[in-house]
Amino acid sequence: MKVKYLALALAAMSAGAANAYTDNETNLYITGASAIRNNVAASIKKLCGDAGGALTVYKNGSGVSSLANQMAYVCTEPMAGTSITTVLHTTTGGSLNSILGMSSSTTNKAPDGAFYQQQPMSFSGCDASANAGTGALAGYSVKANCGLDTKAASNGGFSDVEYGPAIGLVEGLDADADGFTIGDVSAKTTGVAQAFGVAVNNRMYKDLQTAQGIVGKAISTPTDINGDGDTSDSSPNESGTCDLGNPLPDCQPSLSSLQIRALISSNLSTAEKKNASALGLTAGTPITYLKRPVTSGTQTSAQVFFLSKGCANGPAGGELDVVAPGPSYNGGKFIVTNNSGTGNVLNALATATNYYFGIVSAENRAPVTMGTDAWRFIKVDGAAISDGTATGLNKKTAIKGDYPFFFEPVGYKGPEGKTSTDEAALIDAIADKMALKLADDGPTTVGLFISPVNPSGYAYDGAEVGKLVRGGSSPSSCQPLQAF
Asked: Which residue ranges are recorded for the region named Disordered (predicted)?
């Protein structure tokens, strides 16, 4: 049996080398959220291990320290009681492509011009041998530099938020053109919650620290930032007082929800858009907002949280629109760029010139040293999601209810013909694995924690299971947080 599955997997790779992806019984191709891609990978690794297999990770692009927008995971054994050994995962375009990406149409596009169908990774051009991963890929065996196949219909995937706040983008799916309608799509409650954060580049972080009088402030608790076993290091200081770039919570600058709303709303007359000095930054220096596409769940989460977009749109109204991408607003003082995936945002943040900010999921750990290409999470309304360390899990404050910027991801599957029985089962298994405690064979997750409404019945514990919920068994991003 093992020989059979390995032969099928190798055949799938050969098909990929021809740059024309073909769905088969050993493959699952998922599209959607980039915000939880690290945690999806961790679940796949666990499922492969549970099956007695060994996992090899393939990625588009170079390097073995971070995930790419196109990845593939190949297990030597079929996973979760299915025939599937290979999971291809594409996150370009973001969350709603967990639905739109299943379209049969090669020409249909979202309002921002992005195609519904996305490109899966090809197994052509990959490194001949695997290398040990580092950083976000530590613990994985990685083959990099793989190519891309042509656009293809996926089998479903994961979204950071349910499609309700962006219903207008999916309700036009047509049975003839796309092969299904939104009514044919089934949702899988994941039982987990994903935290998000406001990320800024090196210069913006340091200048906000200076403007807010943080440099020289006492560090309340000596902390091992770099994981070397002591708290005596400097640059950044692990004890004593805050220095420039220090990532510890005591040293993090903060922006209020009101200030972030002023930056990302469509109102071009806000003081924050007219001049960086409104934030205490150097007057006249351009601020760039690294926006995600309309299909991005990270973008939707920011719009729901800060603008009530897609929620306060009934008779009473109240929602605010988001600013559109533009090369120059207010005489070049404010710039908005469109970024397909989380990786694009992080790459853009790696600049020391001018000011850059964006919203990314807390599954991304910021570098603990502040080189010219580093970035940092800042506080939102005075609450920090990052503990500033190299091994921080970026979720403790959200679990305890002190940091409210989080939402509950959803798994989406299509009708038969789009998502086979085995493909649906593996999507469910990936979600269920994320919602398990470590003691019950759950993966170590960063920025992702178990909702108090979960399939295992776990209660709030302050470490892995949260106390607040948005909708719970039927996630509703528009609902206010409630204690469970």
From this structure: 219-248
Contact, 296 vs 95, CB < 8 A? Answer: yes
CA distance linking residue 121 with residue 470, whole number of Å: 34
Alpha helices by DSSP H, listed for 18-67, are 37-50
Does residue 470 sit in the same domain as residue 449?
Answer: yes
If asked whether residues 378 and 422 sit together in one domain, one would say no
CA distances from 355 to 27, 62, 279, 360, 361 (A): 43, 27, 11, 16, 20
C-alpha of 164 from chain center: 19
3-state secondary structure of 223: coil
61, 99: one domain: yes
Six token digits for residue 414: 């299509």
Give me the CATH number covering residue 372: 3.40.190.10
Number of domains observed in the structure of the chain: 2
Predicted local confidence at residue 341, as pLDDT:
87
pLDDT tens-digit map of 188-232: 999 999 999 999 999 999 999 999 999 999 999 999 999 999 999
Q: Please state, in angstroms and rounded to a whole number, the distance separating the CA atoms of residues 413 and 28.
A: 11
Domain closes at, from 406, 434, 450: 406
Are the C-beta atoms of 53 and 76 separated by less than 8 Å? yes
| Max CA distance (Å), the chain | 67
Decide if 34 contacts 341 (C-beta within 8 A): yes
145, 205: one domain:
no
Give the residue carrying structure tokens 């409210």: 404
Across-strand partners of 189?
A: 410
**Spatial CB neighbours of 353, under 8 Å, sequence gap ≥ 6:** 203
Regarding whether 236 and 161 lie in a shared domain, the answer is no
Q: Are residues 364 and 262 in the same domain?
A: yes
Identity (one letter) of the amino acid at 439?
A: A
135-184 pLDDT, tens per residue? 889 999 999 999 999 999 999 999 999 999 999 999 999 999 999 999 99
Q: What is the pLDDT of residue 268?
A: 97
The residue type at 365: R
Domain range enclosing 252: 195-406
Beta strands in 334-437 (DSSP E): 334-338, 355-361, 375-380, 406-407, 410-413
Say whether both 364 and 469 belong to one domain. Answer: no
Q: Which backbone phi and psi does 136 adopt, to 5 degrees?
A: -65, -20
The residue out of 389, 406, 423 marking a domain boundary is 406
Asked if residue 309 and residue 241 are part of one domain, the reply reads yes
pTM of the predicted model as reported, rounded to 2 decimal places: 0.92
For residue 421, the surrounding DSSP H or E stretch is helix 421-434
Beta strands in 180-273 (DSSP E): 186-189, 192-201, 254-255
Q: Is the dihedral angle over the CA atoms 437, 441, 447, 452 positive or is it negative? A: negative
